Amino acid sequence: MTFSSERFALLAVGLFLMPSPVEGQQVPLQGINLVERVIAVVGDSMISMTELDESLNAMEARGWSRPTGAAELLEAKLEILDQLINVQLVIQEAAKDSTLEISEEELEDRVQQEIDGQVRQFGTLGALQRTLAEQNMTIAVFREQRKNIIRNQLLQDRYFAKRGRSSASIVVTEEEARAYFEENQDLIPERPATITFENIRVQPVPTDSAKAEALARADNVTALILDGEDFAELAERFSDGPSAPDGGLLGWIRKDGSYLEEFEEAAFEMPPGAVSNPVETSYGYHLILVQRVLGGERLVRHILFEPELTASDVELSDARAELFGDRLRAGETIVDLDLEADTFELPLEGIAQASQGLAVGLQNASVGEVVGPVRVNDPQAQNTWILARVLETTPAGTGEFSDFHEMIVERLKTERLNENVIEGLRSRAYIDIRLGGG
Known about the structure:
It is a single chain. This protein is an alpha+beta fold. The protein has helices spanning 5-11, 49-61, 70-95, 104-122, 125-134, 139-162, 174-183, 208-226, 231-238, 261-267, 311-329, 348-354, 356-363, 401-428, and strands at 27-28, 38-42, 45-48, 190-191, 194-202, 249-254, 279-281, 284-294, 297-305, 342-346, 370-375, 385-394, 397-398, 431-433. It folds into 3 domains: 5-188 and 399-433, Triger factor/SurA peptide-binding fold, CATH 1.10.4030.10; 194-205 and 310-397, Chitinase A, domain 3; 208-305, Chitinase A, domain 3, CATH 3.10.50. The chain has 14 helices and 14 strands. β7 (279-281) and β8 (284-294) form a beta hairpin. The protein is globular, with a radius of gyration of 27 Å.
């Protein structure tokens, strides 16, 4: 398939994994590395051959085939360079307006939304990390690249918005959107097979006396903290959690459901430097220290005090799990059991992260079938069982038009809206293109 500007435009929509250098890097002329080949000068900035090559590499990673003929390759490079120039012009104009500010918190939120979307697309965080590793990239590098790209994109969006332009009056027909989608079929990522299921977790419940003893330990350590002892050192000495050797360090966390609701609620209500009162979760009691706050993220340490479980607590839990499985297979519902359930749609790889046994059981299960009880992999949830009922199975396949329809329509509207603005900027700007044959 030949290269086209329409094909290139879809690459910048953000539908796919690789961050595109096309979305803007502004490099001042002063202090540039002299070994860089400058292929265009735009105002007081330059575009290097390295940036163009990175764009080509990113497009190839998405499935685009580099032309073998010299003339066709040059045409592709010139079209990409034209887009880079357009982005550069808008960013330069936006940078002149001090009212077009992008907060760090907003950037962090936008980046996390993108990463969450990529995790859903690839099935698990591990699968995303492996894909990035194949491109010699870590999740931290990916995050920073996306942050820079999103910052530039927001600057562009707000620049156009401030000019009083609206896409509300622009009409994109279903046929136009579908044609755009069909033109780029080979770039659509494969959707993994998924299983939708409802599940319940059954775990031992400590006695009231065991919980009281754990809370008393938490209160004792709280007193040591108030006396000035170091939180990290106390975590190493007293925490029952796996982060104890690291001084209870959990790292930067977000309020996104990665941790238990009670834990996140407490952590995100606290100012930097504060230590919580004991916070009860299903794991036990936590003392939480918020060390730093950056946008929507918090650097957190914690000390966990787990109530001691007896052998009889575990035996009772095991028996309950077997009983619930028998009742579900006999036709009762989770509501009948007076239990709370979570519903998930995940690929098998994502299910296996929670339980290899559950993944094996669900792999060939039919709709309505009950799987379990099976053990949870998490060492923090020892003696925990999972029961699951299959609600739906979705085979693997190419992403469908409906998955991308809204994004394509908005992209086409934006392109049409911005054409006149870009033409105006180009007519007033100094542009020197130095990319020639070869």
